[in-house]
Amino acid sequence: MIEIDSLTKLAEGKTKVIFANPSDSDSVIMYLKDDITAGDGLKHDVIPGKAIVDWRVNRDTFELFNSVGLPTHYISSPQEKVVFVKKLQRKINLEVVSRRVATGSIIRWGLVEEGTRFDPVVTEFYYKDDILHDPKLDDRYVDLLINVKGSTEFRTMREVNAQAFDVLESAFAQQGFQLVDFKLEYGIIDGRVCIIDEVSAGSLRLWPYGEGPINLKQKNVLSVLCPDGRLDKDIYRRGESLDKVMSGFQRVAELTGRFQN
Q: In the predicted model, what is the mean pLDDT of residues 172-195?
């Protein structure tokens, strides 16, 4: 049993604490918290038991990613709320978002209608800074970095994010849910771009399929999905009760628990 109180704290974020691993200098210990935030950290609550639910989703998702050969920092989840991960050489200070179905900020920009289906997925980059409200990098500039300046890091993040989305989308689809969008973070480990941080219900949007025939190949799929049945952090963003938020997160953990079955 790992005694968290005896470990050396290296860093602390909104939803996790990073500790030194006394038995392995090439890895660190990520310890998940019960905290939940939204609005660049302006909204904050503590939901007892949330950390264990997040730990389950994170474990199941990263083990799925590792099983298909995606590059990640994940090593193991030896006990509740505790995750062993590889030590970073460098963190890339970006959130990388892939979208299959248009909703959220992309709707607020007025670029597309809600429910528009992207095929292939659209992948965007956001500079990770709460004070600046995580500004989006211009897609044309990212294209220039990749195609003109030869940025292998941006190219790899874009490709890996889309691959990870396809893997996770398929896993949820088998259980009657559409992965709408998700965000991942990246770092450099042994000179390689890898998926890092955590993946939880707070990292994605997940909507159930509707009743009747499900045609996901049409331009707009809002009519065959049920946004009102969402299981993700939008429940919290919209001001629902913490009990309802927890219930949605627990349901996500039930779904991810079937990934390897």
A: 97
